[in-house]
Fold:
Amino acid sequence: MNKKAVLGIVASFLLGFLISNAYTIYSFGLINNADSFFHFNSLNTQKLQSLESKISKDKPSPSNWIKESQISVHEDEVILKIKNPKWAVFTDTKSMDPVIDSTSKAIEIVPESIKDIHVGDIVAYKSAYMDGVVAHRVIETGQDGNGWYAKLKGDNNPSEDPEKVRFSNIRRVVVAIIY
Structure:
C-alpha cells in the first residue's frame, strides 16, 4: 500500500472520529449549537462527566446465594436445592426495570439474620410509606441508635427509598429471577 493510501485511510478515520464525537456531544445537549462546539467550557465538561458516570456506574451484584453444587441441570429439568424457597411475582411499578418487571418471577428465601443481608441483594420489605411489599436493591447497611438498618433503592429510581429499613421489615431475599 502506498503512502497516499495510508494517509487517506488515517485521515478518513480521524474525520469520522471527530464527527462522531461532535454529534454525541451535541445530541446529549452538552453544547447548545454547532457554532459553540469549539467553546466547550467546564460546565459542559461536568455534564459530560456526569453522563459518563451514569452510563458506566455499575450496580452492586447480589450475594452468591446459590452455589453451583446446589444446581443440577438435566435434559428435562433443572433442580435448585434451596431450603424453604418462596415463589414471588411482581407488579409493574417499573422501579426495578430492567432487572425485574411484571413478567418476571422469582425464588426468594426468608433471611435468618442481618448477616444474610448484603449490599447488592434485592430484598422484599414492608414499607412504612407504601402499601404492600416493596422489592428493591440494598445499597447500604449500617448501625444507628435503633440498631441495624439497610438503605434501599429501586434500580430505575432516581433516589433511594425514604426510610431506613430494619431487619424486622425485611420479608424475603431474592435468590433467583425467572424470565
Summary: Residues 67 and 76 are 21 Å apart (CA to CA). Residues 36-40 have pLDDT under 50 and may be disordered. The beta strands are 71-73, 78-80, 86-89, 105-109, 122-126, 133-144, 147-153, 170-178.
